[in-house]
Structure formats: C-alpha cells, structure tokens
Amino acid sequence: MDPRAVEIVDLPDKVDDYFYLRDGVPMAGYLPPTTELALYERAGDMLTDFIANPDTALYVSQSVQKVLADRGLTDSVVELLPFVLLDKRGRRVREQYAIANPLLKVPCLDFERSKYRRTASDPNEIAEIKVLYIREEAIPSDAQLFRLAELPEMVVLRSDLLEAFQQEGLTGIAVNRTGQKTPG
Length: 184
Description:
Oligomer: single chain
Largest sheet: 5 strands, mixed
Number of strands: 10
Order of helices and strands: HEEEHEEEEEEEH
Radius of gyration: 16 Å
Strand content: 25-35%
C-alpha cells in the first residue's frame, strides 16, 4: 500500500453488524446511504479509487462503480452501498463512494495446492489462507468478482476485470495473484 494513500478504519464504530460484509450478506438494511465514514487521520492524503482498510471492505469510487456496472456486476452480483465520505476535517468529500459487496460465493479452493490453516474450534472451517490456488474449472464462466465460498472474507477477481480497472487508470487496488503468499 502506498503510504500517501488515504485509509478508512471507522467502519466497526459506525455500522452495526458490519462483519456481514465479510460474508457477502446483503447489507442495505444495515448501511443506509447517510452513513458517514471518515478518512483516517494517520494515513496519507492521496484519495484513491479503491480505499485501503483493515476490514476487507471494498470502498470504491464512482469510476470503479461504472466499470462494475458496465460489466454487469451490480445488483444481485455486487451490491453497491453508497455512504458519505468525510475528509480528515469532517467535511463531506465531493465524489460519491460506495462499498462494493460481492454477493456471489464460489466453492473453488484447491485444497491440495493451497496453504491454509483451519480453526482450532472447528476443523472444517478455514481460519486463513497463506497461499491461494483455485480450481478454475469450478468457477462459472460469468463470475468476474466473487467471494471464495470456503473463506468468504476473501474476494477473488478475474484477471480481465483487473485489466479493465488498470485500463481505466484506477488507483489504490491491491491484489495478490494466485500462488503468491498473502500478506499478514
């Protein structure tokens, strides 16, 4: 992450049941468009199209929202949850941001090749994935942005969607390619 980039860290303080965002549960009833989220004072000042955060939420600009809409990735596929973005002084930022909440979950983890750790309390539940490999044959051909069903907080995007973001010059996106060690 670029140290000059902005960050949002107040989601847990502002939204009840925010953790549903990690599971791909529809959130419109929990996050009205009047919800105010502020830029973190200790982060940088560079406003990006994807805003970094510790909550695995996808905070996206209007430009990202347009790419998603142009590719048919809204409504039942990706829920867009508008919110009010405040700058570090508490003033409303002009551009409209939203949380992109992927609702589609695809069971495609390659258990043989991936490196992961199961939870101590339930050996059938995955706690974290260190190196991700997916079974591409298990992914529907129209799935471009989805959650890994085995660990829904992990969002997967297809390379052609990443290319579309890059062609638009969108900033702030951080991705890990399959087979690479995930940070953390």
